[in-house]
Amino acid sequence: MIKILNLVLTDFWFEQIKSGIKTHEYRVAKDYWVTRFQNNNYTHVQFQKAYRKNAEKMIFEIKSINLIQNGEHTDLAVKSPVFDIELGKHIK
């Protein structure tokens, strides 16, 4: 069964993923994300390019979602834990 995680990105990060430069998406491990990832088995992620009418979208398979204890070496550059969403195949 397909379960899609919907995420909105800024133009810059959307284009980085679209081009294949960025293959991981990160989220700070706050209660909101802990709850979402804990109780759901997401198989795909849909990225939307900003909040605009008729926004461009793309879907990727999710290889894995892991908790990293220190996000300093991610694009978030934070010392707190972050979720690492590893992207798989570009579907659409």
Short recap of the structure:
The protein has 92 residues and is of the alpha+beta class.
Task: Note down, in words, how this protein is organized.
The chain is of the alpha+beta class and about 90 residues long. The protein has helices spanning about 10-20, 30-40; strands at about 5-10, 25-30, 45-50, 55-70, 80-90.
Q: Briefly, what CATH class?
A: Mainly Beta
Identify the CATH homologous superfamily.
Answer: Hypothetical protein
Number of helices: 2
Order of helices and strands: EHEHEEE
In CATH, the architecture is Roll
Number of domains: 1
Beta-strand content bin: 35-45%
Largest sheet: 5 strands, mixed
Which range best describes the helical content: under 10%, 10-25%, 25-40%, 40-55%, 55-70% or over 70%?
A: 10-25%
The shape, in one word, is globular
Residue-averaged pLDDT, rounded?
A: 96
Global Rg: 13 Å
List the strand order in the largest sheet. 1-3-4-5-2
How many strands?
Answer: 5
Return the structural class.
alpha+beta
User: What is the CATH topology?
Assistant: Archaeosine Trna-guanine Transglycosylase, Chain: A, domain 4
